[in-house]
């Protein structure tokens, strides 16, 4: 017992002496006159790695040269984060305001014009109560977009990599749709889907190629349906303005498949374009290492081309995906028909109302607002001249995807926080075990 106590006292004395020596060295460093600012910045940069809370509990912690530099770094990051939050908040407020303004304008036209129908709300609610099953079918059509797109992606990933899981694929589809609906021109949806699939251990080539290929097939299906509507059902739209917007929208949409085809058959041209773009970004001080970025980008392009070429060789898979793309777009365009039936309105046959919906989507396809906010509601009202059906259609065809996507985003945030907390707890527990092992080793004779 006496021997263990003496060893313990020696260990404590040695630890105290080591700490005092380190503090003495730190005080001597901090009391020296400061040198050139660049020299100080270089020293503080090497001594200021951002550490987690767990690292501060370790004994061998790096003490920053200047606490002022650390505070400046924290303030700078906090300021940038606050700016991002304010910008997102303003964009969200603008988005909500735009929707409210459009709905207010259409409601004023509906209820204060010459053909105002003040008792239409009671007729509307009565029709919904009697035809609720059509409303259920409309919701099923909206959810069918998730199902068909997930089946398409799962099949292509399985052919490319040999394995595919339903849960991460379906989640990627839900989140991609969510981010497409909250960003201008829907430009974040596909990149986020690539990121999410890659995060869930899908190979780089497959994660890059599959979302692009499935989007390409969906665009082709949409263009074919638009050409059919323009050719055989052109008379169902009486508004010349809507027709012109639809023609322009479809013409611009043709650029997407043409670009992908050129991307596949002309790799040298693509490499030159990538190199030019990266060098331009380097001159704008956006990219620091142009050679490294160019090499990585071209490597990803090669992975994409190989996966794309492999999928094109499996004709049965591509035919399956193409047919599923038709069902996906048909399910999306069918929402309008069943909403009109649920509201007790008859605007033509199933094919005619579906063709009208194609015109609406084509006319608003080039609108840069998130989810085509404002343009979709206005175009629907111009075509159908019905306020309450427009609200129901917009809720099912747009806000349903926002609501489901938001729930998934919150769920993922909670799960990630729980995993991060568990990781930190494990680090703390590991640190405690190491300290116990050191004490035990010191007490061992």
Characterise the protein shown here:
With 445 residues, this protein is mainly α. It has a domain at 128-406. It is 80% helix and 0% strand. α8 (204-232) crosses α15 (350-363). The longest helix is centred in the last third of the chain and has 57 residues, at 387-443.
Helix/strand order, N-terminal first: HHHHHHHHHHHHHHHHH
Number of helical stretches of at least 4 residues: 17
Provide mean pLDDT, rounded: 76
Helix and strand composition category: mainly alpha
Distance linking N and C termini: 11 Å
Gross morphology: globular
Q: Main β-sheet: number of strands, strand sense, barrel status?
A: none
From the alpha carbons, calculate the radius of gyration and give it in angstroms: 30 Å
Beta content comes to: under 5%
Low-confidence stretches: 1-8, 25-68, 113-119
Give a count of the beta strands, DSSP E runs of length 2 or more: 0
Helix content: over 70%
Q: Which keywords apply here?
A:
single chain, 445 residues, mainly alpha, 17 helices, globular
